[in-house]
Each structure stands twice: as structure tokens, then as C-alpha cells.
Amino acid sequence: MEASFDVRGKEFKVDFSMLGSEKYYFNGELLKKRWNFKFNDRLVFDTDEGKIEIVVSLSPKSWSTQAFLDNELVVEELFPEFKQKIEDGKKTKGMSKSGMFKNAILWCALTVTFLLIFQWVK
Q: Rounded to 5 degrees, what are φ and ψ at 95?
């Protein structure tokens, strides 16, 4: 996932991979490359254009990646499409009554099958 934003006429780019790799670029120059598996993190870069902070907060209930310039919020969400996918996935995860009934029938059938096989082997 890539996101970029303007910092007083220069581009700041964030590149995250799903495997934990993070790369931070300012004006085309790689500032930092690292592996990170933290769910909450704040990374600060001191540049000629000011102090840039990237704040990441990930949890099952919320997802947020924000950018600050000199302690002022400049980007509300670096990856809005990904955040929307996560929130849409949470909405569709709920199981309907018919889905729960089908699940219960499946588990009952598997239990009976296992018990029959167990009795036959015994």
C-alpha cells in the first residue's frame, strides 16, 4: 500500500506491505526502511520542511494511519480505501439466523459421523 502527501511543495511517501515492511520517502529520498509488527506506533522525521509524524493505530475495532506536520494533522487517513475495506468486512461478518442454523447442522453431522467412525474402529 502506498500513500503520499504534500509537505510544503515536496512529496512525503509511505509504503507499507502486508508482511510488515515499511518504507518512508521524502522528496524521492529513502528516509527509513524497517520491518514493523506493532499495532500502535508513532514515527517522527525531522526534515528541513518541519517535523513529520506518522501515527499508526490498528486494532480489531479501529484502523487509523494519520500524518502530522509540526503537530498539526495534515492527512486524516493515509489509506482510506483499505480502511473502508476493513470496515465493510466487519459489517458483513455477522451471521444470519439461517447461516447459524446451517452451521449447527453441519457440526451435528460431523459429530455423528465422527462418533460412528469411532464406534466402528473400536
A: -100, 135
Residue-wise pLDDT for 56-67, tens only, equals 988 767 788 999
pLDDT tens per residue across span 32-44:
999 988 889 999 9
DSSP state of 17: -
DSSP track, 56-113? EEE-SS-EEEEEEETTEEEES-S-HHHHHHHHHHHHHTPPPHHHHHHHHHHHHHHHHH
Residue 47's H or E segment, with its range, is strand 40-47
- Asked if 68 and 52 count as a contact pair (C-beta separation under 8 A), the reply is yes
DSSP 8-state class, residue 38:
-
